Amino acid sequence: MYLARICLVILAVTAAAWIAAVSLRADVIPAVFPKDLLADSIYVDKSERRLELRRAGGVLRSYKIALGGNPVGPKRQEGDERTPEGHYEIDFRKADSDYHLSLHINYPNAQDRAASLKMGVQPGGAIFIHGLPNAYPLSVAPKVDWTLGCIALDNAEIEEIWRLVPDGTPVTIVP
């Protein structure tokens, strides 16, 4: 009987530790998936409002997304509310952003800078894949285009992406 109680206590402590480890608090979200289950690329189809996490050519996960408020066409200048199109990568993450978790896309790339320079405008920046604004009272939002050019998801979705996408992951965004 005593051994059974010890086993139950150990099981309870282990379960509590595991739950704490996968806590959804933005400041302590760990990478909990094994490396062989992580995405090796992100594919975004703007016209379908879809983001796919891919591994070895197959789709791991697919999500409905919201884009910039003026989504048609590539981002060319700061303030145009367009989501970029092209090849990028996740270069850093922010747990303490104004949104529920953010993965930074390294926009603008060389082609974006050249196109903006040719137009005589600033290309803008600060393009992220992120959750909802921290001030938003719900964790799920209607999938309407509302960002300033970022790619937005529900909070549970960005938490999953946060765990499945390492820094350095390539991002392809198509019209």
UniProtKB/TrEMBL annotation:
The keyword Transferase applies. It comes from the Bacteria. Residues 40-174 form the L,D-TPase catalytic domain. SUPFAM superfamilies: L,D-transpeptidase catalytic domain-like. InterPro entries: LD_TPept_cat_dom, Transpep_catalytic_dom. The active site is at 130 (proton donor/acceptor), 150 (nucleophile). Pathway: Cell wall biogenesis; peptidoglycan biosynthesis. Keywords: Cell shape, Cell wall biogenesis/degradation, Peptidoglycan synthesis, Transferase. Belongs to the YkuD family. This is L,D-transpeptidase family protein.
